[in-house]
């Protein structure tokens, strides 16, 4: 049997319990067709990048599947029929990841670099240091000569 990762998006106006019921329904379809479902993750309600069928948010769910292709095709057929499922994607994988997925891992905000504008040395191997102040630029308004305008009296 082949290994798959399957993610689907459910409408924003259904409850979390209804999303769990959808997951159990599709898990039953896989098991009835000779496959098995491993890890199941509910990623919760997240904002969409663009509206899908008038929805701005969606419930995301991930399932790791070990099943024949016919079982996955039957599950996808039922998802196409369902009005609660906005989108789905099934990917064939070599092996399933151990532990939580990247979406479920809590990122430590300290893992990223400092946000104070200091980026470290430049790629060329030297640092030019701070930029000297500009002279005669647009920032020096009082030093700029004023021209009389014709429409002023």
Shape annotation: elongated
Strand fraction: 25-35%
**In angstroms, what separates the terminal alpha carbons?**
88 Å
Instruction: Classify the oligomer.
Output: single chain
According to CATH, the homologous superfamily of the domain at 2-93 is Ribosomal protein S6/Translation elongation factor EF1B
Do you know the CATH topology of the domain at 2-93?
Alpha-Beta Plaits
Q: What is the CATH architecture descriptor of the domain at 2-93? A: 2-Layer Sandwich
Order of helices and strands: EHEEHE
Walk me through this protein's architecture.
20% of the residues lie in helices and 32% in strands. It has helices at 16-32, 69-81; strands at residues 2-11, 36-52, 55-67, 85-93. The chain has a 4-stranded antiparallel β-sheet with strand order 2-3-1-4, covered by helices on one side. Strand 2 (36-52) and strand 3 (55-67) form a beta hairpin. Helix 1 runs antiparallel to helix 2 (69-81). 16% of the residues are buried. It holds the Pfam family Ribosomal_S6.
Give keywords:
153 residues, alpha+beta, Alpha-Beta Plaits, 4-stranded antiparallel sheet, 2 helices, elongated
Provide a quick synopsis of the model.
With 153 residues, the chain is α+β, with helices and mostly antiparallel strands. The protein has a domain at 2-93: Ribosomal protein S6/Translation elongation factor EF1B (Alpha-Beta Plaits), CATH 3.30.70.60.
